[in-house]
Amino acid sequence: MNWWALIPAYVILGGASLLAIGGAQEMAQNGGHPFFVALAVAGGAALLGILALLTWMNWRAARFRASRWGLYDQSGNKGGFGKGFLYGLLGVFLVHIALFLCMTLPAAPESLRAIASIALLPFAILYTIVPLFTGWMMRFIVATRI
Fold it and tell me: How remote is the C-alpha of 5 from its chain's centroid?
């Protein structure tokens, strides 16, 4: 990887995040619904988070490549996917249990119970996506360890 490869990501993701955050500010000034303002800010922050993740990955890969050019030859380690997969699966499971308990506790406010019941809907997808992503990230971290 090289640093020039990140320029399109900075242009596209950075511009989209600024557009989302600027749109949130415009909606707030014109009396838009607060939920949509928060959704636009969260979308802009998520795009900036993806950009930060790409920058961190590029920095780590460049550092690993530079260490291989030093006095010793270091080969990338293998493995780590299973450990990351299990961490991701455990994290999704714990959030799922917390939302389920929040939804079923009679002492919780009705609005919180409604939000928890709606938040439980995408968990069938999250049980697949999050463990695969965390496994891939753990594999990347192990492979670029110096």
Answer: 21
**Whole-structure pTM value:** 0.70
CA 141 – CA 62 distance, rounded (Å): 13
> For 16-44, how does the pLDDT look when each residue is reduced to its tens digit (9 = 90+)?
999 999 999 999 999 988 888 999 999 99
d(CA 66, CA 136): 22
Q: Which helix (H) or strand (E) holds 117?
A: helix 110-119
Count of residues for the chain?
Answer: 146
**C-alpha span between 120 and 106 (Å, rounded):** 17
Write the CA distances from 81 to 1, 19, 59, 124, integer angstroms.
21, 35, 21, 21
Closest CA to 47 of 12, 8, 3, 2: 12
What is residue 33's DSSP assignment? -
CA distances from 87 to 22, 54, 93 (A): 36, 21, 10
Dump pLDDT digits (tens) for 49-97.
Answer: 999 999 998 888 888 877 766 655 566 677 889 999 999 999 999 999 9
How distant, in Å, are the alpha carbons of 11, 51, 63, 89, 98 from that of 17? 10, 10, 28, 29, 31
C-alpha 141 chain-centroid distance: 15
